[in-house]
Amino acid sequence: MDDFKIEPAIIDDVSQIALFQVDMAKESENLDLDYNTVWSGVLAVFEDVEKGSYLVARDAEGNLIASLLLTREWSDWRAKYYWWIQSVYVVPEWRRRGVYRAMYQTVKELASDADVHTVRLYCDSQNLAGQSTYTALGMQKSHYQFFEEEIECLEE
Predict the structure, then answer these.
(1) Which of 69, 91, 114, 154 has the fewest CB atoms within 10 Å of its CB?
(2) Which SS3 state, helix, strand or coil, does residue 149 take?
(3) Which H or E element spans position 17?
(4) 33-47, pLDDT tens digit by residue?
């Protein structure tokens, strides 16, 4: 196994996580995100723990090589939380080396300790590499379909 460690992100990681998200959106969905907007969104997670938390992987020198966002959803059916894995990114040179596998294992351990019922994620329908990875780690395609509508918000 390569020399890396999984740990909670710290506020000093905001800029790198934001860069990861810009790269991930371009790579997986061909979207060009505004870095400053993404940076503000990442920072907001650190400023309000109710929004979620980040896990990161660091190489032996302490450089970020991967990140993911965990958010939670209350299930009235289960009277427990579901956790959502979002914004997964592993730098290309570290892919296929067990980084995401280790991160996912950490998520499962944390979820078990927190009495979480289910861990979920969504993946772009065209992201076949991601789908293959998630399936190989034991996740199953859900019977739910994902619907959305962007809401026009008033600018402040």
Answers:
(1) 154
(2) coil
(3) helix 14-29
(4) 999 999 999 999 999
